[in-house]
Design brief:
Elements (H helix, E strand, L loop, with lengths): L9 H9 L1 H4 L23 H7 L8 H6 L8 H9 L2 E5 L4 H6 L6 E6 L6 E2 L1 H13 L4 E4 L5 E6 L1 H13 L16 E2 L8 H15 L6 H7 L25 E4 L3 E2 L8 E9 L5 E10 L18 E6 L4 H15 L10 H8 L1 H12 L13 E2 L4 E4 L5 E5 L5 E5 L2 E2 H11 L3 E4 L5 E6 L4 H10 L10 H5 L1 E2 L17 H14 L9 E4 L13 E7 L2 E6 L10 E7 L1 H18 L6 H7 L6
Parallel strand pairs: 6-7, 7-9, 8-12, 19-20, 20-21
Antiparallel strand pairs: 1-2, 2-5, 3-17, 4-5, 4-15, 9-10, 10-11, 13-14, 14-18, 15-16, 17-18, 21-22, 22-23
Bound molecules: siroheme and iron/sulfur cluster.
């Protein structure tokens, strides 16, 4: 039962009572002993909390929903629960009006997202996912901004077969979505040192350690043995799981290729040379409480860059991660989902409060962070040679879309590469792909297949096009307000035209577009960002730095393409005339006072 002082309403009482030792009680006083004023709020839990509570370890009525032949949809409560299993119910928004006109239910289908920590898959796994996309999906694999795959358009009756097809090659989708720790990201390019392998190994360990313990996934999708009785104990996540999604990444400076400061929980690898001069992993700086999602017109929602808390050694990593997650589990807002991310828990209470709480739970303090420096954001393209002599080819895959299209048969091309490839594939956090660990003798064969299938063309485009990101948006995303992926090529043309006109061809400049302010392509960390407002209309944000550590700010709200181009034309003209040598556009705008705090 809740202890005295814990906010009690008929619903919260029930909810927290069920998760006895882990959620009862969330700390009511800070580590310093002062009362936690935020705990005084007494509001009913959000509807999703009620669904989680009643779900018996995320089972809900998914089995019944899947078996119902009368609709392509699943029950409302199950649409929430299926996310924890890595799937979203969607409908094709391009077809909505026509379906309605014909008095048909929306064209329901499901998106499935994989849990692929660090984005590493074998050629066999690639081939299996590609075949599943052809057989049950839309013939497209989508590489996401968190190093996962998405298959879109899987209809209800094929969901289980698709999950089983993934399982046959040891890929699952548990915790790819939902109020849990999501796919753990890791620095993608294995080129520099053995440290990258270690960092990848840590991302797998983190993913496993923070994963839900429920067997519901195995029962529902893989025909595992059915549980009789109470749901399994969830020692870290708790019986209600987390208040909201939670994201973790590990990065290796100087390349901030995972946008570490946008993560709820981040680990910055600290390397030091050993006596032979080789860089060794000595530990990590801990970052917490980054996050990007916001809502237009609601200033109480905001993107936030994470805080760097302290240094830890590798053997402390899992314990620290688990305690950070448990702090959010116990203190995160379960009444208002727009205020439930970890960034709000820490922003409300303060970083010092968080540190005190973490150190109290750990039983020791973390020493100050060690020095580190980021010099880049995004990916490095082309061939690079690794420490062991093997080669890695980073390909630019615009918006992560792997599909057969005229002049760019990417799905087929990558299947042919997977058929001969002896190494592995690595998805980057920027929707790109590394054909990794290629023996020198195979490079020519890979190169030929890349060229034959148009996979290398994007490497020779402008830096703006090569580095740009767009989220999925329309037609599959139910939250999209404007185009993103389908608009990216046109918008990049406009930016490139402006750069050429002002004599700045081929300068680096980060451009990111999302169809709404949720921030799936991490637009708040781009020098130029468009954030969907309404069809054809965007918020223009400017001024992030080029290493992923400073957020951009609102420059113009709710404007159309001609107004965006006009605004950028004036700024780029000034940039061309007044910039310092090698000064980035984002930095320039602050220096000359176009942007102000
Ligand atoms: Fe996202 C929701 C796609 C990375 C913040 N995101 C969605 C949904 C599932 C829409 C929905 O809830 O109905 C989108 C599905 C579109 C579709 O049709 O496929 C969606 N998010 C994506 C992906 C596929 C974008 C991409 O183009 O690659 C990325 C999948 C990552 C993965 O593999 O796990 C994706 N989403 C992100 C990121 C970037 C990141 O994590 O590094 C963010 C910003 C970082 C953050 O979380 O703070 C992000 N997505 C959101 C949010 C806003 C969360 C918030 O704090 O307010 C939502 C909406 C929500 O949760 O309510 C959302
Ligand atoms: Fe959908 Fe918005 Fe995310 Fe884009 S940013 S995928 S429109 S939720």
């Amino acid at each position: 039962m809740p202890r005295p002082g814990w906010p009690i309403s008929p619903l919260t009482d029930g909810i927290y009572a069920m998760s006895t030792e882990v959620l009862d009680p969330p700390a009511q006083t800070s580590a310093a002993g002062s009362p936690d004023k935020f705990a005084a709020k007494v509001n009913p839990p959000s509807p999703v909390e009620v669904i989680k509570k009643a779900s018996r370890g995320l089972r809900g009525s998914l089995v019944e929903s899947l078996a119902d032949p009368l609709t392509g949809a699943i029950r409302d409560s199950d649409t929430q629960l299926i996310k924890f299993h890595g799937s979203y119910m969607q409908d094709d928004r391009d077809m909505r009006a026509e379906r309605e006109h014909q008095k048909l239910e929306p064209a329901y289908s499901f998106m499935i997202r994989t849990r692929t920590p660090g984005g590493v898959v074998s050629p066999k796994q690639w081939l299996a996912l590609s075949a599943l996309a052809r057989t049950y999906g839309t013939g497209s694999l989508r590489l996401t901004t968190r190093q996962a795959f998405q298959l879109h358009g899987v209809i209800k009756k094929d969901l289980k077969k698709t999950m089983q097809g993934m399982n046959a090659v040891l890929i699952d989708s548990i915790a790819a979505c939902g109020d849990v720790n999501r796919n753990v990201m890791a620095a993608a390019n294995p080129v520099e040192s053995r440290v990258h392998q270690e960092v990848y190994d840590w991302s797998v360990k983190l993913s496993e350690h923070l994963k839900p313990r429920t067997r519901a996934y195995h029962e529902i999708w893989l025909d595992g043995e059915k549980l009789v009785g109470e749901a399994e104990h969830e020692p870290i996540l708790g019986q209600l799981y987390l208040p909201r999604k939670f994201k973790t990444a590990v990065v290796v400076p100087p390349h901030n290729d995972v946008d570490i400061f946008s993560q709820d929980l981040g680990f910055i690898a600290i390397l030091e040379p050993d006596s032979a001069g080789e860089n060794k992993l000595v530990g990590f700086n801990l970052t917490v409480a980054g996050g990007l999602g916001a809502t237009h017109g609601e200033p109480q929602t905001f993107p936030r860059v994470g805080d760097v808390i302290g240094f830890l050694t590798p053997d402390q990593m899992l314990k620290v991660a688990e305690n950070v997650v448990m702090i959010q589990r116990d203190f995160g807002d379960r009444t208002d989902r727009k205020h439930a991310r970890f960034k709000y828990t820490v922003a409300d209470r303060g970083v010092e409060w968080f540190k005190a709480e973490l150190f109290k739970r750990l039983g020791y303090t973390l020493p100050p962070p060690r020095e580190y420096k980021f010099t880049t954001q995004g990916d490095r393209f082309g061939w690079t040679q690794g420490f062991d002599g093997r080669w890695h080819l980073t390909l630019r895959i615009e918006s992560g879309r792997v599909v057969d299209a005229p002049g760019r048969p990417f799905l087929t091309g990558l299947e042919k590469i997977a058929a001969i490839h002896q190494g592995d594939f690595r998805l980057t956090a920027n929707q790109n792909l590394i054909i990794a660990n290629v023996p020198a003798s195979e490079c020519m064969n890979i190169d030929k297949l890349v060229a034959d299938h148009g996979l290398g063309k994007a490497l020779f485009t402008s830096p703006v096009r090569r580095d740009a990101l767009a989220c999925v948006s329309l037609p599959s995303c139910g939250l999209a307000m404007a185009e993103a992926e389908r608009y990216l090529p046109t918008f990049v043309d406009r930016v490139d035209e402006l750069l050429v006109r002002h004599g700045l061809k081929d300068i680096p400049l980060t451009v990111r577009i999302t169809g709404c302010p949720n921030g799936c392509a991490r637009p708040y960390l781009a020098e130029i960002a468009l954030i969907g407002r309404a069809p054809g209309r965007y918020t223009l944000r400017l001024g992030a730095d080029a290493v992923g550590s400073r957020l951009n700010v609102l420059y113009r709200d709710n404007i159309d393409e001609p107004s965006i181009v006009k605004a950028l034309d004036e700024l780029i003209a000034r940039y061309a005339a007044e910039r310092n040598k090698d000064e980035r556009f984002g930095d320039f705008l602050w220096r000359v006072g176009v942007l102000k705090n």
